[in-house]
Write a structure and sequence with these properties.
36% helix; single chain; 442 residues; seven-stranded mixed beta sheet; globular; 2 domains; Aspartate Aminotransferase, domain 2; alpha/beta
Length: 442
């Protein structure tokens, strides 16, 4: 048990909070001071059941002693080592352990510090690859409406969430978007993958006809999380893979959320039966104990870039903290837990119970759609007139005060619990959430 006592701060002004209503929070603070297993605890000691694995990331639950001890041990041995023209053993071991989980033939791993950095890195790798193979005209990057690929200018440009872009003016040039796969008229309240929407992948043919052979890569989430849990229609990803191969375009899966067991396999590509050319990851890689991200690339991409240069640096990109010793130690310990406890298998076994509990909210007031896949759920609420997002935010606040952490995106409640969840936790999550939704019915 983590016994650290954390006092409530008496001055909240200094911290410029991310993705937050700073004014509201600092007048109505809700703080987390400790975490263990399936729960957080406030500074006053009140338990808050974690229905979101932090931010989709603490898949093995909180306070795992094996990860803590690995970080402590490594900090005493080697606190930092540069990885430009140098290396340290744990970075190579961590990369090999990641490669053990990725699809066959995707055995090269580039380390970053976050999902945002992973996505920007993958886009740069795509451009470098196309140039190295003699296709330097391929500079265009394709994303998808309602896609989320972090907050760097690359991922933000390829992403398709307007609210994340409107403050920042000019985005990257040479970017276009596929349509969203969200078809509520045909697919509302579907359990798992919806039947309608595979045809939307054919929009890539239209973009190829428009842009010619200038497209370098397409980046999509296998299951879109931050935009409100959008599950791919049956056949959609298969068709996208087919078209990318046909036109010499790289397919990048953003698996920052779906990686490391979230939908019942090591990676979403395995569950969905579609192998991309690159996979971006973060979050569950270290159980969020230390920031770390990564990009797994196909051997063919790596070999083309590295062998395309006679000597010297082949890829002019990297971060000071790429493969940081503490992060590498955390990743190795996390993967040990992931494999030993079969977290993907636990998620898959719990999925039917989770699905039924999720759809039990169908008759709740103002619920207009429910979407689920693996241990992810999105419950969409009817917005209040003239106050988009207000109803879901009030549900979020009620849930927290009643001892449950949920995630809000617009008027959608998103859930993604630690993969160690038990049926009693599922029951508690949906009972508390149902009560909060009913209380916000007006």
């Amino acid at each position: 048990m983590n016994e650290l006592s954390v006092p409530r701060p008496n001055d909240l002004d200094a911290y410029f909070m991310p993705f937050s209503d700073n004014k509201y929070f600092k007048s109505h603070p809700r703080l987390l001071a400790r975490a263990e297993g399936m729960s957080y605890f406030t500074p006053e000691g009140k338990e808050v059941l974690d229905g979101t694995a932090g931010l989709w990331c603490s898949n093995a639950g909180h306070g795992r002693r094996e990860i803590v001890e690995a970080i402590q041990k490594q900090a005493a041995i080697l606190d930092f080592a540069p990885t430009f023209q140098l290396g340290h053993p744990l970075a190579f071991e961590a990369a090999a352990r990641v490669a053990d989980l990725t699809p066959k033939g995707m055995d090269r791993v580039f380390f970053t510090n976050s999902g945002s950095e992973s996505d920007d890195t993958a886009l740069k790798i795509a451009l470098a690859y196309q140039k190295a193979r003699g296709q330097a005209q391929r500079v265009r990057l394709i994303g998808r409406e309602r896609g989320y690929h972090g907050v760097g200018f690359g991922g933000m440009s390829v992403g398709g969430i307007g609210g994340n872009r409107k403050q920042f003016g000019t985005q990257l040039p040479y970017v276009d978007h596929l349509p969203s796969t969200h078809l509520p008229a045909q697919n509302a309240f579907v359990k798992g993958q919806p039947a309608h929407g595979a045809h939307l992948a054919d929009e890539l043919e239209r973009l190829v006809n428009l842009h010619g052979d200038t497209i370098a890569a397409v980046m999509v989430e296998p299951v879109a999380g931050s935009t409100g849990v959008l599950v791919p229609p049956v056949g959609y990803l298969e068709r996208l893979r087919e078209l990318c191969t046909k036109h010499g375009i790289l397919l990048i899966f953003d698996e920052v959320i779906t990686g490391f067991g979230r939908i019942g396999n090591h990676f979403g590509s395995e569950r969905l039966g579609v192998i991309p050319d690159m996979i971006t990851m973060a979050k569950g890689l270290t159980n969020a104990a230390v920031p770390m991200g990564a990009v797994a690339v196909s051997d063919e991409i790596y070999d083309t870039i590295v062998n395309g240069v006679a000597g010297g640096i082949e890829f002019f990109h990297g971060y000071t903290y790429s493969g940081h010793p503490l992060a590498a130690a955390a990743a190795i310990a996390t993967i040990d837990i992931h494999v030993r406890e079969d977290l993907p298998g636990r998620a898959k076994a719990m999925e039917p119970y989770w699905e039924e509990a999720t759809h039990s909210l169908k008759s709740s007031p103002n619920v207009i759609d429910i979407r689920n896949f693996g241990l992810i759920a999105g419950i969409e609420l009817q917005p209040r007139e003239g106050k988009p997002g207000d109803r879901a935010m009030q549900v979020f606040r009620r849930c927290f005060d009643d001892g449950l952490l949920v995630r809000v995106t617009g008027d959608i409640i998103a859930l993604s619990p630690p993969l160690i969840i038990e049926k009693s936790h599922v029951d508690r999550i949906f009972s508390t959430l149902a009560d909060a939704i009913h209380k916000e019915a007006a």
